[in-house]
Amino acid sequence: MNWEEKIERLAARAQAEQTPRVDVTQSVLHLLTAGPAQPLTAAERLWMWLAAAASAVAVPAVAAAFILYTRSAGPLNEIAEAISWAVQ
Amino acid sequence: MEAAIAESVRALAQSAPTQPQDVPADLGTNDWDDVQRTRRGDPEAYRRLVQRHQDYVARILWRFSRDRRVHEELVQDVFVEAYLSLSGYHGQAPLDHWLARIATRVGYRYWKEKARRKGTEPFDVEQWDQAVGDGHATNALDPDDAGALLHQILAQMSPRDRLVLTLRYLEQCDVVETARRTGWTKTMVKVQTLRARNRLRKLVEQSGTELIR
User: Fold this and answer.
1) Residue B23: φ, ψ to 5°
2) Does A17 reach chain B within 8 Å, measured CB to CB?
3) Domains in chain B: ranges and CATH
4) Does residue A3 belong to any structural domain of this protein?
5) Best residue in A19, A30, A31 to probe B by mutation, most B CBs within 10 Å?
6) ipTM for the assembly
7) CB contact under 8 A, A15 and B170
8) Which residue range is the domain that position A76 belongs to?
């Protein structure tokens, strides 16, 4: 008996195996009937606008703070160097 | 994804014929009726179609994955894909045949994705020898074990070879049926089958077993 006959016998035997039962009816219909997302409630809408406003304020504030820090760091360093003899 | 499905549902409902059509000669009346109802947006009709054909689809996809979770997901994918392409089904073939093509496509896609992600484990040569021996031992083999062993052996092949060998050995498909399921030409199926068989022979020869005596 050659290799292919053995494979064919094995396959013939496998024909009799029991396939596990599945029931996908609910999941398929759920996927297909799920409509578009529900509209936001008034409270959710309020929180959304609040978050957007906070972000809109926070981003320029961080940028301004960074610019101010870099501008003020120069003169501060000069003062620190000028009085360093007193510290010593 | 859900928005795309909702859009497709609307398109299906719009494309549904307003007048009932004749039932195609080779299609079961129940199936055709439910297909038409589904196109008109009746979810209960599609529920009946799924219930009627899910065992058949599950049997095909068991050849593609023996992991129960993956298997169930693949069956689900087939029916979602079938629904989305239902407008392209004209009843020229029984619904089972049409679903078998989709199932083969879904299973093949799964193999290709899996092959990209990771390699395969070599099959257990000793298990093969014990299970098959001189070939007559297979009659005493548990069908589940036979299916698992064959699945393990064919998993060594490329997805393309595996597909054609699975259809040939496990699904008992001839050239015409394989061509129909895969969407390949008959010539391509013949060539691919020949190459895949040669590679399978080499694979078992390289395993150094008693397999090809």
Assistant:
1) -75, 125
2) yes
3) 1-119 (1.10.1740.10), 120-213 (1.10.10.10)
4) no
5) A19
6) 0.70
7) yes
8) 40-88
